[in-house]
């Protein structure tokens, strides 16, 4: 009995030791993001930003701290509870390979699964003369052009998969998705310091995330696809129902902007009718 008690104490102590850096890192930054009565007030202690400070934290500690921040201190439990479903409406500007620019409005319904591959999604894009929709359910994608069902081509499928599986959610849900994460060398871009996290999912999709050392927010991600390098940046972070959401994103292919999108409204937790995820 004594051995069992000692083992339990040892186990709890080791877990606490692993958790302490996460609580320190994320709590300091979370409180730093709260409004203060005066700019002259005392500021919380921030993590070291020296050249060798990467050695202070592991990839898991940094990502778990980011999860903590995105749930405004509630972390994964809050995100799982609030983001069971989502309805998003916004506008986007798409630049085609021939240089033609389309300004569209879009709507996206998402029903969260145990992992991203079991999510259900309806993504509608309203162009000037047509509505183009993609339905994702049971790991399959179906296209709808106005009222006609079709099978999306390879480019459309790849674009949709990149949008869904190479995004901030992929990092926040890395454990559920059984993805691997590795810590790279810290980088400084235009005066901003970033933790670099390389994520590889179960089907070997690789995405690199740039997490601000100062705020622990994901500010940018990069990936290669079809011989091109893509970069997506995130702007205008806001509190949406107790979770952190970037309301503007910009996507580059090589050095050219090919997509800009802005969220108009987003709501979480509402009941979504099953018919939304059916093609007819």
Describe what this molecule looks like in 3D:
The protein is built from five helices and 14 strands. With 280 residues, it is of the alpha+beta class. The chain has one domain (80-277): Clam (outer membrane lipoprotein receptor (LolB), chain A). Strands 1, 2, 3, 4, 5, 6, 7, 8, 9, 10, 11, 12, 13 and 14 form a 14-stranded antiparallel sheet that branches. Helix 1 (2-33) packs across helix 2. The radius of gyration is 21 Å and the shape is globular. The termini are far apart. The relative contact order is 0.14.
Query: CATH fold name, please?
Result: outer membrane lipoprotein receptor (LolB), chain A
- Distinct helical segment count: 5
Question: What is the element string, with H for helices and E for strands?
Answer: HHHEEEEEEHHEEEEEEEE
**CA radius of gyration:** 21 Å
Task: Output mean pLDDT.
Answer: 86
Q: Name the poorly predicted regions.
A: 1-20, 34-52
Helicity range: 10-25%
Give the full name of the CATH homologous superfamily.
Answer: Lipoprotein localisation LolA/LolB/LppX
The major sheet is characterized as: 14 strands, antiparallel
> What is the count of β-strands?
14
Proportion of strand residues: 35-45%
Question: Structural class given helices, strands, pairing?
Answer: alpha+beta
Q: Mind telling me the CATH class?
A: Mainly Beta
Beginning-to-end CA distance, first to last residue: 63 Å
Quaternary arrangement of the chains shown?
Answer: single chain
3D shape: globular
How many separate structural domains?
1
